[in-house]
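Bumping with the actual sequence this time:
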Amino acid sequence: MNTKLQVLVIDDDAVVGRSFDRVLSEKGYEVSTVQSGEEALDSIENTKFDVVFTDIKMPGMDGLEVTERIKARCPWTPVVVITGFGSEDNEARASVLGASGFVHKPLTPEIIENITLKALNEKVVAEEPVEEVGMANKADADTAQQAGVLRKAGIFAKNAGLFFAAPFIALAYIIALPFVGFYMFAKLGYQAYNKRHLSA
């Protein structure tokens, strides 16, 4: 099983791809390079990439369209736009499309390493809240389910207790009834006697 972080570099200039490969392979990354947006979309069908770098100006599909399509298919995959023809308009569009960064050529080894780490850190931060919410929802559901089971068990125990106790309760009433009747009869007789005695 390949545990290396997967990096995809999309640039029609093979030198750029080799630069990324040389710098990141030494740091333990698995780097794949393609020279067009169409090749990139084919690649992401077969491999789950941890970060993608794409040039803007390429034959056929440009880097902004590539960014849009990749984010539509893999919204949690960071896409960093690299270009030698940067503009504020392109940078704004890249940001709107969900790009994790926008960097200008030429790229030094330090820049390549730093933007890779930055993109990966942003991916972790973006994914954590979703996982926590999912776990919280699961915990809430489990708690509610447990509470429902306990409530049903309590109702069953109460009903079962009443069912088994009912004959004994009835027997107690039967036994106590003569004594209650005798007490009431004696009380009424005593009250009648006192009334006659006082009136006399």
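The tokens above came from a reply further down the thread. Residues 130-138 have pLDDT under 50 and may be disordered.
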